């Protein structure tokens, strides 16, 4: 499912799954194309290979803190796509960041802090203030269930899948006429996160999207005030520009 691109695109009404052949099964006069895509940290068998680590149990014993850190592996995929219809004045473009997370710790907890975020920015400004991005999401389902979060712009719609344990949340920090930014404060509670940003531009204009997935690579230090070990927040970045 992840190899072909999970984002679902279409006209308002039933969203359209694009898969590897996005032009297939779309209404007459409408075309949806994946212009470019790439994955980072994904093995030939589809498994994540990039290590991430968050906070642990904040106690005086260093070995206990280290052993209880929430941690695992991830991969990230990036997509640039374009809607086209019979409008001779404007085009609609979008970009998507997808991250897939697994836990490898034995004693860590998903509730421990492990900040991650997605960012998408365009070198073009949305015409007429017409833009859209994936909204805030708080899971109300089990860890195994994936939920599609809808986004719409003009006559077009997208559906971005998110899989998280109950109560874990993704915040839309910002959505503007040039960019979108999302954060997940406790990424250990997530398995799959996809966010998308879309904008309206003048016909023929081809925006360039800068996309990043930032993942936790926390350190730790002793706090005299707290009298125990505490996390040092540090994020690493996976970046693509299409």
From TrEMBL:
Protein name as catalogued: DUF3455 domain-containing protein
The keyword Signal is annotated on this UniProt entry: yes
Domain of life of the organism encoding this protein: Bacteria
Signal peptide (residue range): 1-25
Organism of this sequence: Actinoplanes awajinensis subsp. mycoplanecinus
This protein's UniProt keywords: Signal
């Amino acid at each position: 499912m992840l190899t072909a691109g999970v984002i679902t695109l279409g006209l308002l009404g039933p969203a359209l799954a694009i898969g590897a052949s996005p032009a297939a099964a779309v209404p007459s006069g409408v075309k949806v194309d994946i212009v470019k895509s790439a994955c980072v940290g994904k093995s030939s068998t589809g498994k994540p290979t990039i290590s991430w680590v968050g906070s642990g149990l904040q106690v005086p014993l260093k070995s206990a803190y280290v052993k209880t850190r929430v941690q695992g592996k991830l991969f990230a995929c990036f997509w640039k796509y374009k809607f086209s219809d019979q409008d001779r004045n404007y085009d609609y473009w979008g970009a998507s960041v997808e991250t897939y997370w697994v836990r490898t710790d034995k004693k860590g907890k998903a509730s421990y802090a492990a900040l991650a975020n997605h960012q998408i920015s365009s070198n073009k400004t949305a015409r007429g203030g017409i833009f859209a991005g994936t909204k805030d999401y708080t899971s109300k389902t089990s860890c195994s269930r994936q939920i599609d979060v809808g986004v719409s712009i003009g006559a077009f719609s997208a559906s971005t899948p998110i899989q998280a344990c109950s109560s874990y949340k993704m915040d839309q920090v910002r959505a503007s006429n040039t960019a979108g930014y999302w954060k997940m404060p406790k990424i250990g509670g997530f398995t799959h996160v996809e966010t998308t940003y879309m904008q309206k531009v003048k016909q023929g204009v081809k925006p360039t999207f800068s996309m990043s997935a930032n993942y936790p690579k926390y350190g730790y230090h002793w706090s005299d005030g707290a009298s125990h070990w505490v996390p040092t927040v540090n994020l690493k970045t996976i970046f693509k520009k299409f």
